[in-house]
Amino acid sequence: MSERIFNEGILSGRVAFVTGGGTGITGGVARAFAESGASVALVSRKMDHLQPAADAINEAGGKALAVTADVRQPEEVEKAVAQTIEHFGKIDIVVNGAAGNFLCNAEQLSPNGFGTVVDIDLKGTFNVCRATFAQLKEHRGQILNISATLHYLGTPMQLHVSAAKAGVDALTRNLAVEWGRYGIRVNGIAPGPIEDTEGMKRLVPEMFRAHLRKNIPLGRFGRIADIEKAAVFICSDAASFINGHVLVVDGGQWLAGNRIAG
Ligand code: COA
To answer: Model-level pTM greater than 0.90?
Structure first.
């Protein structure tokens, strides 16, 4: 995030459990949370992604812990939650960012291919919400689910991800209603095409990029920093009455109807 937009320490005293926290969008969100005063647990499958990200945050004066867990495995998630509580004392923000994606035509997609993405994105989000509920209830915490805009319209080669992310948005709305009574806010961010991510490199072939950019009303691709700022806002007290909302951060792309990627 680095440029200062919010008050210093806007998230100080909070402990965030960020899945997919080593790289890409959620790597940026974790770093922005740390710059805003939160302690962050970076959670994903591979320590070789996590440790450098945690080291960078710690070297910059933040507080980060790298924890390995596959969000598809409820027992691993529970262990990661326990490790985080042991290290930081509590959890009061959860960011569900762990996701899998690849391009595949629907007719070529295997049951396991479809199921793998649903397992990571949707069931993984549920597993993490479930495992952190007691902490969130105790600390009147909050959840931020990262979804997408793919399922707002039909998106070629993204059936599996669209189905999974539609489910994630359903979790956001249902949990907001069920857990609001405990003071837990549950919101989402739906990013559009974000240029400085691995997803953009892998999922949007170079030849489509100029066309795609032209059709984004704001005339540019998103950047990880755009999602960081939205995430800090939505997890801060500035958003204390926002619950069950999925904030689209896409420069107006989905409304313009261009469905190559999002
Ligand atoms: N096209 C079609 N099917 C694919 C595929 C592709 N590009 N990539 C994976 N699959 C299918 C596999 O064929 C397999 O199905 P099968 O058993 O019927 O063959 C199934 O998905 C599981 O694949 P596997 O590689 O065993 O799973 P994994 O758990 O190791 O990884 C992903 C799954 C989705 C996470 C993998 O694509 C990946 O590692 N992606 C990079 C990270 C990523 O997606 N980050 C998100 C950036 S937006």
So the answer is: yes
